[in-house]
# Entry
Amino acid sequence: MRKKIFHNWGLKLGSLVLAFLLWLLVIQLDDPPDTKTFRGVPVVLTNTELLDEQNKVYQVLDNTDTVTVTVRAPGSIINNLDPSDIVAIADMSKLTEINTIAIAFSVQTADDVESIRGNPDVLRLNVEDRKTKWINLHYNIIGEAAEGYMVSNAQLDLTQIEITGPQSAVDQVSDARVDINVSNATTNLSANVEIQLYDAEGKLLDYGSITKNVNYVRMSVEVLATKEVPVVVSTVGTPAEGFLATGEIRCDPDKVLIAGTSSALANVNRIVIPAEDIDITGASSNVVTSVNIRNLLSDSNVRLADTSLSSNVTVTVFIEPKVEKTLEIAPDNIVILNTPAEISAELVDTDGFFRLTISGLESVVSAVTADTLGARVDLAAWMEEQELEELSPGVHRIPLTFTLSDDVEAENSVMVQVMINELEDR
# Structure
């Protein structure tokens, strides 16, 4: 058996090699077909100007503009194909009534293709009338400036933009906005910011089918330092006869926030309302005056911080009737002061009361009593007033002196009789 196997072994080996070479030759000559799949092939739309001429726009549905293509061709062709060799075309002139277009597939680098098919094999579109409209452009400030600073003003280069797209999409757009972040800002800001579209409920819209005539707009933001300062008020004039100013002046508000450059604010510590603006001449009731303090900010680099509020402050000067009160002063409440050394002095006619009428505001007058008057006879002061160097013995009529505040006025003088006697050991 072994002899049979190895008999003429060289001839047998040669036959095997020859058979292999024949097989290779057949393969090369026959070139059997093979199949290959290409994913993510883009669909090219042609003749789109046909819709433009009808003033219509389209939108691809369900991502049907990207397809998977399977090609069957001889192996020699398949092995050399790249995704870029595959062509998928949708001709807009073949648009159906249901807005679909059959996609035509081909291999641009080979003609000897057995079959080519795609999935999906139709392009689905949404076709609508084109609509163009102008919409208002607004800005939205995000965040807050640093402490002690405020956003004073913001401006956009544009106030309106034009949008174009499918009518259904354009109709949903209510306005356009841009956002700029001012968090911790201490200086003016400027930037090119992207324009976003919103519906009537403030919801952000993301329609790739809508085009804008501009996508970015320049925004400028003014950032100013702030400072709180008091409002100072004074008055001129005198109320009507029988009335007095209480001294209370109310300003609402009594402090305001101002804004400006840091250097300008350093020179402003208060806002002073001129006295001539608050004239109480002849007043018999409270005087209420509205004053525009914006006009009192002489530095053009300083302004009221909240421009949305009124620049007027309300000043109220309180006026009350003058009241009178008569006090009875007992002789025991009267003291004699500064008696010269060589004489003695004592009150005469001490059986009755002495009466003093005072006037002023009720709150002040009501607090004055006979005990708090400090009634006294100041002999030294009276002698100086009368230009007397000494007092002769006898009875002298001398006015009482009282301790009264500037808010209380004595309506009469009170005279007392003082007996002057010489001392016996003189």
The chain has eight helices and 29 strands. The two ends are 185 Å apart (CA to CA). Residues 9-30 form the longest helix (22 residues).
